[in-house]
Amino acid sequence: MAVADPHSPAINQSASDSAVQRALANFYQRYQAAYHEAGQPLLTELIDDWPEAPIYTQRRADGWVEWAPQRRQQALDFSDLEHALEQPFPDSFRDYFNFGYSADVEVSWQQQPLLLLHMQCDQDSQRFLQNLAGHVLMKRRLKQPITLFLGLAADADDLLLTQDCVSGAMGLEWVGKPQHQMLTEDLASFIEQLTPRVIEMPEDIR
Asked: Homologous superfamily of 19-196 in CATH?
């Protein structure tokens, strides 16, 4: 059984990293360590359309693939989408998705189980941008404050984790509704307070 090695760097940091990116680097390290201590491998389902996804480290015959976070070499360009939507995004939001490639990760914020969304490869990035555009257009049609989604509740996929475009605050909102609960005032603080949630795989998958 292969498990994440907590002594190997999850993802390298740079002196120019923002507060969000430093928080993410530390989080990835904690995430790998949590899985290692639990004797669980980091696994995600293999996406056949993304054979060159940079996070894939070892393919398996059972439809799963071992993965590890990888630093992006080229930033994702949000400018075309921001221009089309006439909506600038918070710097922290761009920093979050421009830091690295990763599988979605299971976390807890206090007692709330969440699934944080990430991009596994460039093709995944384009899919994400399309979904993000649909979310922003829906918020505008409903005449609600514009938010950007970064995840969802693990036990309710219509409960979204979002960032307010103006204040940068992190909160929860039901699909089609405004944010009803603020979690933290900024994204970096939110990441720093996350607890990795280890999902135990059946013995025949480990």
From this structure: Syd protein (3.40.1580.20)
